[in-house]
């Protein structure tokens, strides 16, 4: 009974989180240019050990098909904590970022990051929640070293089966909040404490064990504006 109550509270917190984020979205100026983000995410264990690797490659555009926005290369060493759903990750990521519009100028960023990831299920496994806390140390051109803190929450719900498994269609919703660790970032530059929020809604298909595809719409909310993104992703575990 106690465990059920705790799970119900987590679901309630998830929906409160989404409602508050949508309220902040309504206060921002909208950007009607739809972006396109395309990614391949994979993870693999090292034999029978608790260690493994998690990595992704992403290509992002300011609109669906062109106007280069960002190339992301990321990889981390993971460790599954015994007798729990917890996984810790430490890694490195490389970012090459373009500029909106006709300019060809680019900036480069290197990051170190640490993740703590855990999962849970509700209603006899019909709803699956994934949580991730991420800390980033950011090395950006012409800026001081920066830190950023992120919390991600994802909920999946199978559509044609009672539980997730091979050949399962599913719906999902997620949100992620970003908070900056510093406001003074060097050379007289400043940023706000609140960085941005990502809000996702989408569908997916579990092709087989360890392989799924997802299609989603994401709304990015910053202090300056909101912008929509088309998200196409392939997730591979082997």
UniProtKB/TrEMBL annotation:
| Keyword field | Signal
**Pfam families referenced in this protein's UniProt entry, alphabetically:** DUF2490
Q: Which residues form the signal peptide?
A: 1-27
UniProt cross-references to InterPro entries, sorted A to Z:
DUF2490
Keyword Signal present in the record's keywords: the answer is: yes
Q: What is this protein called?
A: DUF2490 domain-containing protein
Q: Which organism is it from?
A: Leeuwenhoekiella marinoflava DSM 3653
């Amino acid at each position: 009974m106690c465990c059920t109550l705790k799970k119900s509270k987590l679901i309630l917190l998830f929906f409160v989180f989404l409602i508050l984020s949508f309220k902040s979205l309504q206060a921002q100026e909208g950007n009607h240019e739809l972006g396109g983000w395309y990614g391949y995410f994979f993870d693999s264990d090292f034999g029978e050990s608790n260690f493994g690797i998690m990595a992704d490659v992403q290509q992002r555009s300011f609109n669906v098909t062109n106007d280069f926005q960002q190339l992301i290369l990321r990889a981390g060493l993971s460790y599954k904590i015994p007798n729990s759903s917890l996984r810790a990750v430490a890694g490195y990521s490389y970012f090459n970022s373009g500029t909106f519009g006709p300019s060809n100028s680019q900036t480069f960023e290197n990051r170190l990051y640490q993740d703590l990831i855990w999962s849970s299920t509700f209603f006899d496994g019909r709803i699956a929640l994934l949580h991730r806390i991420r800390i980033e140390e950011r090395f950006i051109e012409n800026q001081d070293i920066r830190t950023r803190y992120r919390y991600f929450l994802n909920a999946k719900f199978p559509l044609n089966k009672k539980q997730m498994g091979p050949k399962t269609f599913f719906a999902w919703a997620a949100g992620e909040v970003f908070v900056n660790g510093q406001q003074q970032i060097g050379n007289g530059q400043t940023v706000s404490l609140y960085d941005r929020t990502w809000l996702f809604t989408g569908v997916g298909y579990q092709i087989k064990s360890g392989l799924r595809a997802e299609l989603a719409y994401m709304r990015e909310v910053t202090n300056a504006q909101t912008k929509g993104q088309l998200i196409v992703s392939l997730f591979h575990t082997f």
